[in-house]
Structures are given as C-alpha cells and as structure tokens.
Amino acid sequence: MATTRRTLNLWAGHVLVLLAVSGEVDVTNSPDLHRELARAAHTPNVATVVVDLSRVTFIDAAAVVELAVARRDLARTGAEMSVVGATGIVFRVLDLSDLTGYLDVSPPVGRG
Q1: Where are the domains of the chain?
Q2: pLDDT in tens, 29-78
Q3: Domain 2-96 carries which CATH code?
Q4: SS3 103
Q5: What is the 3-state secondary structure (H, E, C) of 45-95?
Q6: CA distance 99 to 91
Q7: pTM for the complete prediction?
Q8: 27, 60 in Cβ contact below 8 A?
Q9: In this structure, is the dihedral angle defined by the CA atoms of residues 22, 24, 29 and 31, taken in order, positive or negative?
Q10: What is the pLDDT of residue 110?
Q11: Which one of 1, 12, 77, 104 counts the least CB within 10 Å of its CB?
C-alpha cells in the first residue's frame, strides 16, 4: 500500500485533505492506513478528508474498519470524510460491508 497526501486550503482557513491510496490494503498494512488517516484528521483546521481508492486493487475487512473508525473520529471533531474512486472488488467489499452510506462512498460511474 502506498499513499499520497495533499492539503488544500479552502474557505475561511478550512482545509481539505486528499489521501490517495494505492495497491492492496489488508490486515498486513491496515496500521499504515490508520496512521495516514490519523495524520489527515490531525491536520490543523481540517474540514474534510477525501480518501481516493481509485488505485486500490484489493481491500479487506481490516481496511474497512480503519475507514469507519476514521469517519467516526472525524465526525467527533466536526470534520467530514468521503470515499471516492472505489470500483470493482473494492466497491463490492465496501458495499457488502453495508457502510457505503456511512462512509459517503461515491458509487462507480454507471451505478449511481
């Protein structure tokens, strides 16, 4: 798993963090995902964290849990989180977890 993090200044000092994830995300590296999500959540003035999964080829339950925990923790601070770019097996795992609404997962093109 690899991640790229970008921080964008928005309105009135609010910040959007884009976390692009790639490769396989599973129990062996979900602690890395946790760490990157926590870094994003602790960005000063963060208003929104967008997690881009368009380059993820596999995801398991451990990664889904990390996404759900990050969403919960961000909501406690008043920040939002959304997941974009999930397709194929990645979208299917998120859909089967019944967390697509909670994680604000955008459906793949053609499935809206």
Answers
A1: 2-96
A2: 999 999 999 999 999 999 999 999 999 999 999 999 999 999 999 999 99
A3: 3.30.750.24
A4: coil
A5: CEEEEEEEEEEEEEECHHHHHHHHHHHHHHHHCCCEEEEECCCHHHHHHHH
A6: 11
A7: 0.90
A8: yes
A9: positive
A10: 61
A11: 12
